[in-house]
Amino acid sequence: MKKIGLMLLISMLVMAVYSQDTEKKLAQIPSVDLKTIEGNTFNSSQIENNGKPIIISFWATWCKPCCKELNTIADVYADWQQETGVKLIAVSIDDSRSSDKVKPLANGNSWDFEILLDPNQDFKRAMNVNLVPHMFILNGKKEIVWQHTSFSDGGELEIIDIVRKIIKGEDIK
Amino acid sequence: MKNYFRKVYTIFILSVVLSPIFAKSQTIGGGQIHGNFQMDAQYYLKDSLIGAPNVPEKLLMNGFANIIYSNGNFNAGIRFESYQNAMLGFDPRYKGNGIPYRFASYTNDGLQVTVGNFYDQFGSGMVFRTYEERSLGYDNAMDGIHVKYKPYKGIELKGLIGNQRFFFDKGVGIVRGFDGNFFINDIFGLDAMKTKYTIGGSFVSKYQPSSDPVYNLPENVGAYAGRLNITRSGFGIMGEYAYKINDPNASNNMIYKHGEGLFVSTSYSQKGLGVILSAKRIDNMDFRSDRNEVGNVLIINYLPALTKQHAYTLTAMYPYGTQPNGEIGYEGSIMYNIKKDSWLGGSYGTKVSVNYSLANSIDKQKLNDTIAIGTDGTLGYKSDFFKMGDKKYFEDFNIEINRKFSKSIKAILTYAYITYNKDIIEGHPGAPTIFANIVVLDISYKFNTTNTLRMELHSLMAKQDEHDWAMCLLEYTIAPKWFFSVADLYNYDNPDTKRRFHYYNAAFGFTKGTNRFALSYGKQRQGITCVGGVCRQVPASNGISLTITSSF
After folding, report:
1. HSE-up of B287 (CA within 13 Å, CB side)?
2. Which of residues 481-500 of B touch A (CB under 8 A)?
3. How far apart are CA B238 and CA B256, in angstroms?
4. A98 close to A62: Cβ distance less than 8 angstroms
5. 10 Å Cβ neighbour count for A158?
6. 3-class DSSP state for residue B10?
7. CB nearest to A98's CB, from B32, B273, B309
8. Which of B188, B193, B278 is nearest to B232 (CA)?
9. Is B17 in contact with A147 (Cβ distance < 8 A)?
């Protein structure tokens, strides 16, 4: 049993070594089925912002820091959009206990974000998210250039800084 | 049997290695390895006073890492888990190291095939949901084959078969399931229509052999569910009904009654306003792939509590848990955003949310004069579908006001009145029902763009159980990297004066990108805690704990 696991691990690593291009590529977002707030299926590969940066924020209705993060950004979102054209996609990991609260909560809070539902956390798993809130920033080519877990007041400044750097074509690291 | 597994694994490994080569449509280059890691370790201090059990190992640790390889439409991955030994609050049957989760999947022309372990959910989950909640030690992953097919625009079909995870082993029962989801507007090309309809249906069956000397038990137990979802701009309604054939099991005391579940939810929202009303009725719906098991193992379906999930320590002190053998409940919420620059809203606007939920027993009547309710080997009881039972399990009225006073001051005021039937929810016969008044004030003050001090003041007042509690938490954050916090939870009015304990705690943490370290020292009661920007479930203990999370 253990041997097999080890073999599997080694075979995956070997595969990865073979498959690495000479120039290191940035990670793309995996293709996973999500749900729109209307209940339709939406594949994560359809996430689009016409070559402008995208912020993906994993959150839940029961997570206070997540709601704080989204409320904080909601206050400045219009300015951010005007300045950089950035789009925020808020992916709720609420399960069927609370997923029907997502839309009323988002509207009740007057959020202008695009909301997607990940009720069985398939996207969360595919994106390797441990804890919420967890945020990803994608560049115009939809490559993940930055990610961060947790939120505290003032954290939004770093986010917009990264977005501005992407727009200017500066190095993130 | 072992040989059989070895073969299966060999084939699996070969398929993992070879598939990117055979899948000619994909370039072999460009694949990525990504994953995440978490480790929680705690050094336990002796504290028999607060009821922390003695830990002979002194130090306990839970850890896991997911490693996933992705290349276009192909994905494969494993999860390594380690419990040396499992931390307090986790099932001790999680022991040692292993790879309980490995999978490979590919998608081709609308067909997705997954072999190995997988998670999925049919509808709201009333007949099937496998998922993981690592922080709670919950994982009922399937091991088998999962197929998903989209033959036509608006049609999604899923089929699956497998065994469920049982710690580092598998359950004996085989679970088979089929689910169809139909987006009516897409199928009939009614994209322009404002009203959107979705219908769906599922069938799940489990097989478990029986050689019971007393009862003639069904070896195949089937359950089905139908659902409907209608939305029209801000308005939405969804409902699901589930039925399960007779399934005598350890949880329902071996009765032959069928099971039923109904969940209906309707909502309306527009900018600044959200309203939601839901109702559900659950009757004899404990559904597992092993009829002899109880507790959080080998559960096939998901029956969520229809109550608000509170995030503050004291509002979450008495949380409700669904009663699968019978409950009827309602929930309503209103969220309203009072406009800024108005008399009530202040210069930044004010958010108000009101929530009410009730969970009650269902009606249960004797089958006849000679058989007591729930007698094993009988149909158990009769039940009037729409009638409420006479026992209140849980009630929660709460209101939350969230207001920003100035650029530097923000506050959230929460009030909750919770009725908690400890006898039923925790299974302590004779325990009194608790009526708790809870107030939480959460204020934060921003010194400058990145330095914030936050204070939580809690009060819980009850005349039952451990009576009154108070709590104070101070948290200082330097965004986006640092947090420091101190807290004291004080049971100042415990009727047993010797048990008026302080549960103090001090913590600090550091986050850079996706690496997060948190170190804390103190005593903790069980419940959800949200400190330093994230929430997780914590068991009762006294000691020093370290958490490391990371993803790449």
Report:
1. 33
2. 483
3. 30
4. yes
5. 17
6. helix
7. B309
8. B193
9. no
Here the ipTM equals: 0.90
Residue with tokens 């729109």: A36
pLDDT of residue B475: 96
CATH no. for residue A132? 3.40.30.10
CB contact under 8 A, B36 and A130: yes
DSSP labels for B517-530?
A: EEEEEEEE-SEEEE
Average confidence score pLDDT of chain A: 88
Pull the structure tokens for residue B153. 């625009």
Asked, for residue A15, whether it belongs to a domain, the answer is: no
Do the Cβ atoms of B549 and A19 come within 8 Å? no
Which residue, among A5, A111, A8, has the nearest Cα to A59 in the 3D structure?
A111
In a domain? residue B547: no
Residue A124, in any domain of the structure: yes
d(CA B121, CA B131): 8
Beta bridge partners of B512: B515
* C-beta separation of B551 from A130 below 8 A: yes
Residue to test with chain A: of B33, B401, B414, B448, most A Cβ within 10 A? B33
* Structure tokens belonging to residue B416: 């909750």
Is A12 contained in some domain?
A: no
Residues of B in contact with A12 (CB under 8 A): 16, 33, 67, 69, 76, 78
Distance (Å, whole) CA A10 – CA B99: 14
Q: Average pLDDT of each block of 10 consecutive residues along chain B (552 residues)?
A: 52 53 49 93 87 89 96 94 91 94 95 97 95 87 97 96 97 97 94 94 97 93 97 94 97 96 96 95 96 92 90 89 93 94 88 96 95 94 93 97 94 97 89 96 95 97 96 95 96 94 94 93 71 53 94 90
Q: Which domain holds residue B263?
A: 133-140+152-300
User: Which residues form the domain of A73?
Assistant: 26-168
In a domain, A21, yes or no: no
**Cα–Cα distance, B417 to B427 (Å, whole number):** 22
- Rounded CA gap, A97 and B278, in Å? 11
Please give, one letter per residue, the 3-state secondary structure of B407-421. Answer: CCEEEEEEEEEEEEE
Residue B474 to residue B441: CA distance in whole angstroms: 12
Number of domains in chain A: 1
Quick one: tokens of A81? 């959009």
Which residues touch A131 (CB under 8 Å, ≥6 apart)? Answer: A149, A150, B516, B534, B535, B536, B549
Contact A108 B272 (CB under 8 A): yes
pLDDT at A16 over 90: no
pLDDT of residue A20: 46
In a domain, B169, yes or no: yes
Give the whole-angstrom CA distance, residue B273 versus residue B514. Answer: 35
What are the residues whose beta carbons fall under 8 Å from the beta carbon of B514, sequence distance 6 or more? Answer: A134, A147, A148, A149, B36, B549, B550, B551, B552
Q: Taking CB atoms and an 8 Å limit, are A157 and B231 in contact across chains?
A: no
How many domains does one find in chain B?
A: 1
